[in-house]
Structures are given as structure tokens and as C-alpha cells.
Amino acid sequence: ACIGPISMLLTGIVVAELPLIRIIKKKSVYILILIRTLIFPLALYALLSRFCSPTLTQTAVLFYAMPFGLNTVVFPKLLNENCETGMSLALISTVTACFTLPLVLGLTIGM
What we know:
By secondary structure, this protein is an all-alpha fold. It contains six helices and no strands. It has helices at residues 3-17, 20-24, 27-48, 54-64, 71-78, 84-110. Helix 5 (71-78) runs antiparallel to helix 6 (84-110). It is elongated. The termini are far apart. The model has no long low-confidence stretch (mean pLDDT 86).
């Protein structure tokens, strides 16, 4: 029950340790975020809209379009591995979710 706050604290510690410029400069992270938060949800919509109800389809697409979780930071840190890429994925995908979630919802509701 207390795993959520602990992972948020650990993520905050990792963010504080890394220079922000190193976190936001990784080009591969932006490609992964584009694929994970836009391309996959739209492909899922194309598949599910043929077989499922609109409500179920939109709910599944919304869950699939969510940003990367904090597990990308917590698990590498627990194993004493480099969690810089995971930190970049979690931080940047959370910030860009302000734009990608409405975009995905707008595209799937309007289709």
C-alpha cells in the first residue's frame, strides 16, 4: 500500500541527482514516447473499434496512451543499474501527456 509514495520519493531523488539537460537531450526517448503514447494507442483503436463497443475501445485506448510509469526508474535503481533513460522516459512522457492524451482522445472520439 505504501509503494506509490516510496517510488515517487525515489524518483524525486534521481531527478535531483541528474542534470536536467541530460534528461531532456536523449533523442531515442522522444521516439519511444511517440510510439508508446501516439502510434500504439491509435493502432489499438483501429483494431478494437472493429470488434468492441465504443466505450470499451476508448477506455482501452486511454489506458494505453498513458505515460511511462515510475517502474522505469525504480527497478534499475533497486538493481544498482543506470536509471537515466528510465527517468527521461517517465519525466518527459508525463509532461508530454498534457498534449498527447487530448490528441489521442480527440482522434479516437472523432473517428
